[in-house]
Write a structure and sequence with these properties.
Order of helices and strands: EHEHEEEEEHEH
Helix content: 10-25%
Structural class: alpha+beta
Distance between the termini: 33 Å
Strand content: 15-25%
Number of strands: 8
Oligomer: single chain
Strand order of the largest sheet: 2-7-4-3-1-8
């Protein structure tokens, strides 16, 4: 489960980062849902268990504290955006890779040479549920990576235009 993590989950922009970046982060709700995140102390959770190199590289190399993300429920009967979260830590090793009892165990990883990194996220807001089917209905989102045929990445970038359309037009947030 998504437990532990860093205590310093507060917004921060690195000096070299001129603006917030946007992401979509998938979680199976039977593992961690938006309601689970809301109920956690500090409303933050380590984003553990990512075992795709491109998604890992997004967390390790591109995400910065203060970046915003859609919290997306996947692997369920109706996948969709369930809320907004914020990256609230820098990258650090995912401890689940070292635990032989974990489904995310990686026998090739070691504490001296970890293969998998994660970031912590904190809840910004639970939103109305935006299903995948609803997202597909909007031509403004035609280029969204989530909607690309064959996309299975658990973390994808979201353009500022896509973010603005979803948060403004679909969620009524400004």
């Amino acid at each position: 489960n998504r437990t532990g993590g860093r205590e310093s989950c507060r917004p921060f922009l690195f000096p070299e980062q001129s603006s917030v970046q946007y992401w979509l982060m998938k979680s199976e709700p039977n593992e961690v849902s938006i309601d689970d995140l809301a109920a956690r102390p500090g409303q933050s959770v380590p984003w553990f268990g990512v075992r795709n190199y491109q998604a890992r590289n997004f967390m390790r190399d591109a995400m910065r504290m203060g970046d915003q993300a859609f919290f997306y429920h996947s692997g369920c009967s109706e996948p969709g955006i369930a809320g907004i979260c914020e990256v609230c830590s820098g990258p650090y090793p995912d401890d689940s890779q070292f635990d032989p009892a974990s489904p995310y165990f990686d026998p090739k990883a070691s504490r001296e040479n970890p293969r998998w990194q994660l970031v912590d996220v904190r809840l910004v807001a639970k939103t109305r549920y935006l299903s995948l089917a609803e997202l597909r209905c909007h031509s403004e989102l035609a280029g969204m990576r989530l909607l690309a045929p064959g996309n299975r990445l658990s973390i994808t970038p979201v353009s500022p235009e896509e973010w603005a359309f979803i948060t403004g037009s679909l969620l009524g947030r400004r």
